[in-house]
Design goal:
Order of helices and strands: HHEEEEEEEHEEEHHHEEE
Strand content: 35-45%
Distance between the termini: 31 Å
Number of helices: 6
Low-confidence stretches: 1-34
Shape: globular
Length: 250
């Protein structure tokens, strides 16, 4: 999906309503009622026709209520994307240049909602009752946690989800992001099924058929820590120059 570390943030920016929405609701669905902060590392690979589209990507995600930060994982260094729903601001942090570019949050939100709508149409899982869930027989251990598996099926989507029951994080912690991105409305049927499942998804494999061709996305959490996240992660670091994104062409 991504070929370089810098492309991680650029692509997340462009497809915030697509891959990042999947990040939020495919990986972070669990019984409602918890609003704890969380940090996790994950690897994501996409496939077309059963073949990987590239080497995949590792990433780090930090989340606190109303705030999210995404950056390259592993030993790679690169820009980070900071989404501040609590203040309506979005920053792209460039550690090499020590620059924080303030993006047009409303433009990004509009693009996100369009992408979420397209993704919902492809999956066919927008309406309540449009998706069904059944348990998978195998159990697995992922990132040190025992997981149970389930399969969610919508008209054009099949999603295998493995959930850990000992993490204790709920999707309501991400309700603000889901509403902002358009996922709540565009993918409501799939989200309703995810909310019924017991636990925190540590691995998802989604398969969508488009024009007869199967596209898959495999995301696996390799590390997860639930607990308070430093406020400094969601601000431009001291010494960074803050500039505004150029206005969109008419």
């Amino acid at each position: 999906m991504y070929d370089t570390a810098s492309a991680v943030v650029q692509e997340k920016e462009r497809r915030l309503g697509g891959d990042t929405v999947l990040l939020a609701f495919l990986l972070l669905a669990a019984p409602a009622g918890d609003t704890q902060d969380v940090y996790f590392e994950q690897t994501t690979t996409t496939f077309t026709g059963g073949r990987p589209d590239g080497p995949g990507v590792s990433s780090r995600v930090f989340h606190a209520k109303g705030k999210m930060r995404m950056e390259p994982g592993g030993t790679e260094a690169g820009p980070a994307l900071v989404l501040r729903l609590d203040s309506g601001r979005v920053f792209r942090l460039d550690p090499e240049e020590k620059v924080a570019v303030e993006l047009d949050a409303e433009r990004l939100r509009s693009r996100s909602q369009i992408d979420a709508s397209v993704a919902g149409d492809l999956m066919g899982g927008a309406e309540d009752g449009s998706a069904r869930t059944k348990p998978l027989p195998a159990r697995r251990t992922i990132a040190g946690h025992a997981c149970r598996g389930y399969r969610i099926s919508a008209p054009s989507l099949t999603m295998d989800v493995y959930l850990a029951g000992d993490v204790g994080l709920g999707i309501d912690a991400f309700a603000d992001f889901l509403a902002w991105s358009g996922a709540e409305q565009s993918m409501g049927g799939v989200l309703a099924e995810l909310r019924k499942l017991p636990g925190f998804p540590l691995e998802t494999r989604s398969r969508v058929t488009v024009n007869g061709e199967v596209h898959e996305t495999l995301s696996t959490v390799t590390r997860i820590e639930v607990g308070p996240q430093p406020a400094s992660l969601f601000e431009p670091p001291p010494g960074y120059r803050i500039v505004r994104e150029p206005p969109a062409p008419e």
